[in-house]
Amino acid sequence: MRSLKELTQKTLEHIENKTLELGDRIRTISTESYLSITRYDSEVRYVIKKKPLPFCPSNRLKNRGDFFVSQLSGLSLLAIRGEDGQVRIFLNMCRHRGARFVSEDSGSNCKKIVCPYHGWTYSDQGKLSPISTELGLKSQSENVLRLLEYPCHEFFGMIWVILDRGTDADKLAVAFKFFENDQDELGIALEHALPEHSFIGKFNWKLGVEAFLEVYHFAYAHAPYLAQLSYPNLSLSDNFDENVRTIVPLKKPNENAEVLSWAQLMYFIFPSTFLLYYNDHAALISLTPVSIQETRVSYIPLVPQKALEDLRDIEKKVDFLKVIISQDVTVLENVQLGLGSPENSQFIFTRLESQLPLFHHNIEKALGSKVDLKYK
Ligand code: FES
Ligand SMILES: [Fe+2]
After folding, report:
1. Which residue lies with its CA nearest to atom 1 of ligand 1?
2. What is the pLDDT of residues 144-180, one digit of tens each?
3. pTM score, two decimals?
4. CATH 2.102.10.10-classified regions of the chain
5. Beta-strand relationship, 158-161 and 192-193
6. Most informative mutation of 95, 96, 103 for ligand 1 (most atoms within 8 A of CB)
7. What homologous superfamily is domain 53-172 in, according to CATH?
8. Which residue's CA is the nearest one to ligand 1's atom 4?
9. 4-50+193-367 in CATH: which number?
10. Judging by DSSP bridges, how do beta strands 149-150 and 152-155 pair with one another?
11. What is the rounded CA–CA span in Å between residue 241 and residue 246?
């Protein structure tokens, strides 16, 4: 993978030579990929639940004892920052007979997790306190009946989770490795999350991801806002495993100024999260499947602590991005409506959309041989 400097240099060369970064050839995909329920179920099971998903901003769990409850992919999850300073994410459900521990979405000073049904009590690390042996449970049951815990990792001012308890938490950290050098270079600390903006879009989650992986639609779908970009259709991407870093030059570059003053950087964290970097903050956009034709779109601005003193510029950018996203949603819902037409059962990915077949390829890879439906 190119370093950020090399990527910037290559972008300048393309601008100078008036060239574009193009894929090797056109590819096609069957619309079945967006319509098959069996396939969708497998995607949730083998892709969405096995890869990093953003759970909540770190600043929701600033202090020891802070907790936060949220639904993710049909699961109620409880995140808590323990006495040892570590964040852990548990299934919000008692091991006895399934009562939920907390219903409110957040709180503080939680030292023990106490079940409201029969009072079983767990430590902030998920360990069950001894219960009377008269109940018939074997000794040592407190070790066996720990809370069900999911691997999580803090990065980009967010807490990330993998909904597969068998995954090693270190694996999660590896997924973010390639951002680390860039982050130091960009020097924008993402310390504070502004309020989340979220809604349900009526489109398949993969259609949503595709819209963020290409700039070809900017001139049309985002007219007039993004139609006058200085370098239409120019974007350069690097792949790191399943993740992507993309640079989009927005205006005439100034070689001596930092890259974010003339270009946008975007990071794609497979399978469904984007981080868009501006010169003063970043926007985290996640696209979580709700059903085969519904996707929860969430947008969280992440800002440095010092930006809180005056948020006016950032708020303008936030509002602008909301408009852009709503334009995407309009088009995507339109595509979804037409999906079932048997007359048009194949979509085309042009050479300007070369990240899209890669995205689908990575889904295929994650599905293994479980679903036999390949893009060509
Ligand atoms: S369900 Fe939790 S103690 Fe009974
Ligand atoms: Fe768009």
Report:
1. 97
2. 889 999 999 998 889 999 999 988 878 777 778 778 8
3. 0.92
4. 53-172
5. unpaired
6. 96
7. Rieske [2Fe-2S] iron-sulphur domain (2.102.10.10)
8. 118
9. 3.90.380.10
10. unpaired
11. 14
